[in-house]
């Protein structure tokens, strides 16, 4: 196999593993399932109010931001539980900070949603 073919096959395999990981998240993580449900509702609202292309981009970006950071939070929790299953203040700190990152992304997404939809509703 040539170097370039090897490179392409490696990247395609990487995409496959990443897709499997995304499916695992959706199947096993309640928080991501809730966020995916909200994403579906927001998509329906986007079509209902016929939002602009820029608003679609912001909405899709906000959804992607929250869900990807939630995925990282899940990863951090799993690593923390794996390396130290027992109670430890440092593990508590690590998990709280990771959850804080999701909170910041979620607040950002809510603000973006309000800026987009308030003018359509009122
Ligand atoms: N091993 C631990 N040591 C110290 N504090 C912990 C530990 N495990 C959990 N905590 C505390 O409990 C909180 C919740 O942790 P947990 O692992 O249950 O995450 P979660 O937010 O419920 O996530 P999920 O619902 O995705 O499992 C943490 O943010 C942390 O404050």
Automatic annotation (TrEMBL):
<dbReference type="GO" id="GO:0008654">
    <property type="term" value="P:phospholipid biosynthetic process"/>
</dbReference>
<feature type="binding site">
    <location>
        <position position="29"/>
    </location>
    <ligand>
        <name>a divalent metal cation</name>
    </ligand>
</feature>
<feature type="binding site">
    <location>
        <position position="70"/>
    </location>
    <ligand>
        <name>substrate</name>
    </ligand>
</feature>
<keyword id="KW-0812">Transmembrane</keyword>
<dbReference type="Pfam" id="PF01219">
    <property type="entry name" value="DAGK_prokar"/>
</dbReference>
<keyword id="KW-1133">Transmembrane helix</keyword>
<comment type="similarity">
    <text>Belongs to the bacterial diacylglycerol kinase family.</text>
</comment>
<keyword id="KW-0443">Lipid metabolism</keyword>
<keyword id="KW-1003">Cell membrane</keyword>
<keyword id="KW-0472">Membrane</keyword>
<feature type="binding site">
    <location>
        <position position="29"/>
    </location>
    <ligand>
        <name>ATP</name>
    </ligand>
</feature>
<dbReference type="GO" id="GO:0005886">
    <property type="term" value="C:plasma membrane"/>
</dbReference>
<feature type="transmembrane region" description="Helical">
    <location>
        <begin position="57"/>
        <end position="76"/>
    </location>
</feature>
<dbReference type="InterPro" id="IPR000829">
    <property type="entry name" value="DAGK"/>
</dbReference>
<feature type="binding site">
    <location>
        <position position="77"/>
    </location>
    <ligand>
        <name>ATP</name>
    </ligand>
</feature>
<feature type="active site" description="Proton acceptor">
    <location>
        <position position="70"/>
    </location>
</feature>
<dbReference type="GO" id="GO:0016301">
    <property type="term" value="F:kinase activity"/>
</dbReference>
<feature type="transmembrane region" description="Helical">
    <location>
        <begin position="97"/>
        <end position="120"/>
    </location>
</feature>
<dbReference type="InterPro" id="IPR036945">
    <property type="entry name" value="DAGK_sf"/>
</dbReference>
<feature type="binding site">
    <location>
        <position position="77"/>
    </location>
    <ligand>
        <name>a divalent metal cation</name>
    </ligand>
</feature>
<keyword id="KW-0808">Transferase</keyword>
<keyword id="KW-1208">Phospholipid metabolism</keyword>
<dbReference type="InterPro" id="IPR033717">
    <property type="entry name" value="UDPK"/>
</dbReference>
<keyword id="KW-0460">Magnesium</keyword>
<dbReference type="GO" id="GO:0005524">
    <property type="term" value="F:ATP binding"/>
</dbReference>
<protein>
    <submittedName>
        <fullName>Diacylglycerol kinase (ATP)</fullName>
    </submittedName>
</protein>
<feature type="binding site">
    <location>
        <begin position="95"/>
        <end position="96"/>
    </location>
    <ligand>
        <name>ATP</name>
    </ligand>
</feature>
<keyword id="KW-0594">Phospholipid biosynthesis</keyword>
<feature type="binding site">
    <location>
        <position position="17"/>
    </location>
    <ligand>
        <name>ATP</name>
    </ligand>
</feature>
<keyword id="KW-0547">Nucleotide-binding</keyword>
<dbReference type="GO" id="GO:0046872">
    <property type="term" value="F:metal ion binding"/>
</dbReference>
<keyword id="KW-0067">ATP-binding</keyword>
<keyword id="KW-0444">Lipid biosynthesis</keyword>
<keyword id="KW-0418">Kinase</keyword>
<feature type="transmembrane region" description="Helical">
    <location>
        <begin position="32"/>
        <end position="51"/>
    </location>
</feature>
<keyword id="KW-0479">Metal-binding</keyword>
